[in-house]
Amino acid sequence: MEHPYGYIKDNKVYLKGFLGKEDREIGEVKEDEASTISYFEARFEQIKDKVAKLKSDIEENQNKGSFLMKLIHLRDSLYESDALGDFIPLIETLNEQEAFLNEIIQVNRAKNLEVKKALILEAEAKRDDTDWKPTAEFFKELKMRWIKTGPVEKELHEELENEFNDSIQTFFENRRHFYEGLALQAEENIKVYEALVVQAREAHDLPDAKMAFDISKRIQKEWKEAGKVPAEKRQPLWDEFSKLNNRIFSRYKRTLNPGPSMHPREVLRKIEGMVDELKKMAHQPTGPAITQRAKAIQEDWKKLPAHKPKEANLPARSYQFFMDIIFEKAFLEKLAHGKHPGFEAMPLQEQNQIKSGILKDLLHRDQGELDTMQNNSDNFRVQTPDFQMMMRKKLSGLKRKVDVKNYILKQLSPRI
């Protein structure tokens, strides 16, 4: 059976060759020849509808270039379609549409090229900007504009991408190096602040109020000249530094205004009275009333003359020892309550066991610090009288901390 665009031979259906293609088998007769021919003609009508639909979509849509690959795939499929009909007009229609799309794409790519060149110039103008935050936002917005801009010719794509990204990368690398430099400088500045706090502690412990005051003035000036650090790291150091310098100034001020004179025997009598009261308080259970009274005695001590009689040296050491015991016991009580919920409801023996355990840990730390200081004290190169006095003061303070803890530990031990 013959057909304008095909034929049936040996119960097989053939499509006549076109555009240089040979005849091609596209199916076989199922029921009869007439119905088979109708089936393959209907398939061709479906293909015609696809071509017409694609052409209509191209005409109606603004982004016409997006249909190019769909058009090419459809046209290629026409050469392999199992249908009977005149494929040449369909292919010619698709060829015309392809030429139309290519022309539009060329125009769009030329426009895209101009846009991208302009974006590259914008990026280059900002690449060395050091106004970090707004410029970073600018580059993020610029990147979005670049992404939304359509493609250019393939041979230009890589070169343009490299030029654009080079400027962006240069800016963000510069920003990274800047903040890394700030972080490193901040670490160095923190060391300066920490060293000034150490000097403030040492000056605070000097027996000579005038020398301590002179050092305080110098290190406060150095503090003002030190570089920037994050506030959260600087604040704790400043709190301690300012507190120490305030105490140094208060002590120096008292030496300038000693107040009413007091007979040495009266000074000694007052000190001994304070020591007797503190000793009794040191043997009592700690509590708010005890610590408040100890603070009041501290204020009375400050009112005594700065230069005390020689006979007051021993009771003065006892004053400091028992004062330390009172505040150490209060601190120990606070730690025990913090670490052990329901501590106040525990039996006394269990409370004492808990406090002994905490105290032993603190004692181990203080003993280690004392041993290290004693072992290293002879290795310092600087051995001026002031330095030696300062070292003796520090060693004495560490030894007193150890003695205080041992004293409290003995109080907590069960009596046999």
TrEMBL record:
Pfam families: DUF349 (PF03993). This is DUF349 domain-containing protein. InterPro entries: DUF349. It comes from Algoriphagus oliviformis.
